[in-house]
Write a structure and sequence with these properties.
2 copies of one chain form a homodimer.
Chain A (H helix, E strand, L loop, with lengths): L2 H8 L6 H17 L6 H7 L4 H7 L3 H25 L4 H18 L1 H9 L6 H27 L8 H13 L1 H4 L8 H15 L8
Helix pairs in contact in A: 2-3, 2-5, 2-7, 5-6, 5-7, 5-8, 6-8, 6-9, 6-11, 8-9
């Protein structure tokens, strides 16, 4: 899939078209220069629009960041809850969760960086709302690991610390991943699923 | 140790005193607002100095970032080469490397974030120089893992991918660590040393 097609898919739920163009322009600008160094004028100009046209869709720069960060956080939550609620053994569900999440961080590394690094720039209410989404995301992974411990499939002395480390390992893919690097997003997902199963003391399930 | 004492220790090699004050002011400003949104005037003012006084020590904002990033990169390299060259089994050396590096990322999370997230803002030559330091840092961890594989102590199908994951896990501590959180830097170091020994298929060495 082309990078442009991926971007359209990533923001498919953002309508109308002009709002979607502003969101993709904002992601690029925030990733390049940081949230605080970007003006709404920069974003409008990247989207080929006037500042007044931007204002119809987003009253403030913070609203744009909230839109971007909200979509990113909810995608992660859906992905990890789907894995947690899926069929199969705890090891299969954990491998599935890590494989999809790490792969997504690689494929959407530009958006993922903005989502992670600019959390502190959100307004208080938006920040609190997304912290709650993060807690639920964390809860989905913790649930799989706890299930594995309860079933006697995993050996994990510190469930909450291991949950934190698993999520952190995946999130940091967005920092180091380069599209022209040695590994595809799929390969990163496979490698990480294997490493995480080792972290929880599980044998890798047969594919 | 107080936070102020830690900062003085962190930048002990930066002299004279005025240059050190500028460096700590720049770290704070870059961490809060990002490199591109920070002016040399902001930095001088945080350090209680005039822009002209700043200019005596650093000709550009980029020189300040290079100073900060250079110190951070060289500290990491020294720490990991010391662990790689230390005595003991590969498992002991790997645990030592991860324990110190993860702990350092927690203790110095503000500096570490600036070092990691603003790499792209460095000038071309400085960027190339620090990428070379990163390659050597990577090489130190790879060497320990390879030694463990050669000795038959580790079971690692992908040495370079596992090296990348080990470093990434430690670096991302700077993103999520909070001084008022549940774990001390020492506890993070211990947890991570254990998780990484699991990743490489080694039993934890007795302390």
């Amino acid at each position: 899939m082309s990078s442009e097609a991926q971007q359209t898919e990533e923001w498919a739920d953002v309508t109308p078209d002009a709002a979607r163009r502003l969101v993709t322009a904002a992601v690029e600008a925030f990733a390049e220069r940081g949230y605080h160094a970007t003006t709404t004028r920069d974003i409008a100009s990247r989207a080929g629009m006037s500042p007044a046209a931007l204002y119809i869709h987003y009253k403030t720069k913070e609203e744009l960041l909230y839109q971007i960060s909200g979509v990113g956080h909810r995608l992660a939550l859906d992905m990890l809850e789907r894995a947690a609620d899926g069929g199969g053994s705890p090891a299969e569900r954990l491998a599935d969760a890590v494989r999809s999440f790490a792969r997504w961080q690689a494929e959407r590394h530009t958006t993922a960086r903005v989502v992670q690094y600019e959390l502190g720039a959100l307004g208080e209410e938006h920040h609190a709302e997304l912290l709650d989404v993060r807690r639920r995301t964390d809860g989905a992974v913790r649930r799989i690991i706890q299930d594995g411990v309860t079933a006697g499939d995993f050996d994990v002395p510190d469930v909450s610390g291991t949950t934190l480390a698993v999520l952190s390992l995946c999130v940091d893919v967005a920092r180091w991943f380069k599209p022209d690097g040695r590994r595809t997003p799929e390969e990163v997902g496979e490698l990480y699923a294997d490493l995480v199963l080792r972290m929880v003391g599980a044998a890798r399930p047969e594919a």
